[in-house]
From TrEMBL:
GO terms for molecular function: hydrolase activity; metal ion binding. This is ADP-ribosylation/Crystallin J1. It comes from Microscilla marina ATCC 23134. The keyword Metal-binding applies. InterPro entries: ADP-ribosylglycohydrolase (IPR050792), Ribosyl_crysJ1 (IPR005502), Ribosyl_crysJ1_sf (IPR036705). Belongs to the ADP-ribosylglycohydrolase family.
Amino acid sequence: METNPVINALLGVAMGDALGVPFEFRRSHQMKETPAVDMVGHGTHNQLAGTWSDDTSLTLCLAEALTKGYDLVNIAQEFIAWRYESRWTARGKLFDIGRTTAVAIAKLKSFLEHGVPEALSNQKGLGDDRENGNGSLMRIMPLLFYIKGKDIRTQFNIIWEVSALTHRHIRAAMSCLIYLKLGEHLLAGKDKLLAYEQTRKDVLALWEVIEFPESEKTVFEKSVIQDIRSLPRTDLKSGGYVIEALEASLWCFLTENSYAQAVFSVINLGHDTDTTGAITGGLAGLYYGMQDVPPRWHNVLARHDDIVTLGKLLYEKYGA
């Protein structure tokens, strides 16, 4: 079984996504009545067991681009190839694409076709509150291996550039930073609770340096200013809003004690189950590894070996 943290993170995202796909849009009371307990197929999108969705596709597109170095044009081209040519899809067919992401990728395509690639780096901050879906958080995990070890202000600038390819608002970018900063501390071998505590300190310090708006600070009250674990599970939401996805994923990762427990905990909240499964799965795969996951899940996961190969390439490029 793989001990490579890059591979574990990518498999963690893909498996969490695949576990959640059949249950997407189910309400929390429905999940409580018949909870997810295994890798199954059909359901919402009528897909075979082990099929992952756009969350994993865009994660793998980002990983693929990063194997060639950090270049926004390469990243955009990978996203475009996924959207229009079904690159990095689970079974050769695209399904379940968010509206914000679809519109944004069409815009990326236009930038490149009209010879203005410099526009890719000028998207930060152009979006409004409506661009705070979870569509950049769900795909951001591979960027960890490029930004690790850099100072946090540089990390945030890079993260915002990559987030802004589809989600331009600072709130979406800050959510990605919190997620990857926690991942960085986990990658360094810290206990998950100590890693979370340090992440909160890091982010609070960054806010002072960049003069993060007070109105935005309040949005992160539960995840940064307070300890997310103090929140009752009944207060968690798990829809398409990036803050809901971040809070639910952090809570389930921090309060459960294995990959499967964490991922099923968040999936059983219902709603955007493939995305919250992917986000939680990335952290859980990184922290716990994938060695205790049932072998059948590995066997049925779409393009398992391709993901492992990509993880090896990303590891060779940046280490872990």
